[in-house]
UniProtKB/TrEMBL annotation:
Keywords: Coiled coil. The gene is zgc:91999. This is F-BAR domain-containing protein. It comes from Oreochromis aureus. It is a peripheral membrane protein. PROSITE patterns: F_BAR. Pfam families: FCH. Residues 182-203 have a biased composition (Basic and acidic residues).
Length: 324
């Protein structure tokens, strides 16, 4: 068996959008949206710094270890594979530097420009949208608020009349139960109770009339308030749509898994690693540092008489004669 929906608590009713003044939450949403844009820019400017620092750290790491590796005794395809890590890292460093630049110069500037166009301000009144929305809500709610105040006034009066009647009923009951009380006093108690009941009925009639007036006016009030609310909703929809596109754009910048440059870097690195060939490396070492090196095996070497050197004077004289 389906259960009936619970009626909202008293506090929930007081906090309802329809109650006087509670539309201010919608009015303040504009200011909060503006602040949210500031927070988004600050957030991803900080991420841009992280990307820049990461790029610098990658570059520093690559430079440091590249010089160390060049002095190490590795060789051949294994050395080329190790060195390829540094080449790939330099390319990744450049990529993360470009991500940092994109977040700063593209997305940050984009949001700031849109923010300036979307949140115009009115002199001494804050944001124009907030001022206009607040004015429209206030104008639409003012007649209904007045009727509601009247209703509250007659409601209080009616409840007081009910209390007076209840007190008169109790006194009348006590008087009737008191055998020592005179009939005259009992009659006065009865008359007081009848008067209280009459006043209560009159207060209830007035209460019902004011309530009927409020109920009759409520549809018009709701229509006007909803129209203003929907205008505010449309502005907020535009803001949400824009920020969604900003987030998607930031995602494209940060999502390195779908970046073709990153794919190329790791693809080339993988190919270099797969090209490590132990047989080729061992053969290279054998031919350059092992038994495969060319050598002159010992053999009989014939004696060749040395060439006699001319004395210095004869050499100088012979040199002068040979000059033109």
């Amino acid at each position: 068996m389906a259960t009936l929906p619970k009626e909202p608590a008293e506090d929930a009713r007081k906090q309802s959008f329809w109650m006087p003044g509670n539309y201010v939450r919608t009015v303040h949403r504009t200011e909060r949206s503006f602040q949210a844009c500031n927070d988004i820019v600050a957030c991803f400017m900080e991420r841009a710094k992280v990307e820049k620092q990461y790029a610098q750290q990658l570059s520093q790491w690559s430079s440091k270890w590249k010089s160390i590796v060049d002095s190490r005794p590795l060789y051949g395809s294994l050395m080329r594979a190790w060195q390829c890590f540094f080449t790939s890292t330099e390319r990744l460093s450049a990529l993360h530097s470009s991500i940092s630049q994109s977040l700063t110069s593209e997305e940050g500037v984009r949001v700031k420009t849109w923010q300036k166009e979307t949140f115009p301000k009115k002199i001494f009144c804050g944001f124009r949208e907030s001022y206009d929305t607040n004015t429209s809500f206030s104008r639409a709610q003012k007649p209904w608020s007045k009727k509601l105040m009247k209703l509250e006034k007659v409601r209080v009066a009616y409840h007081k009349a009910c209390q007076r009647e209840q007190a008169a009923l109790e006194k009348e009951k006590q008087a009737n139960e008191n055998s020592e009380m005179s009939q005259e006093k009992k009659q006065k108690m009865t008359e007081a109770r009848e008067k209280a009941t009459e006043e209560k009925e009159m207060a209830r009639d007035k209460y019902e009339k004011i309530l009927e007036d409020v109920s009759t006016y409520t549809p018009r009030y709701m229509e006007e308030m909803e129209a203003i609310f929907e205008q505010s909703q449309e502005e907020e929809r535009k803001r949400i749509s824009f920020l969604k596109q900003v987030f998607l754009s930031i995602h494209r910048h940060l999502d390195v898994t779908n970046n073709e440059s990153v794919k190329a870097v790791y693809s080339e690195l993988h190919q270099t690693l797969m090209a490590i060939d132990e047989q080729d490396d061992l053969k290279w070492w054998k031919n350059n540092h092992g038994p495969g090196m060319p050598t002159d095996w010992p053999k009989i070497e014939e004696w060749v008489p040395p060439v006699k050197k001319l004395k210095r004077k004869k050499r100088d004289q012979k040199g002068k004669e040979s000059r033109p």
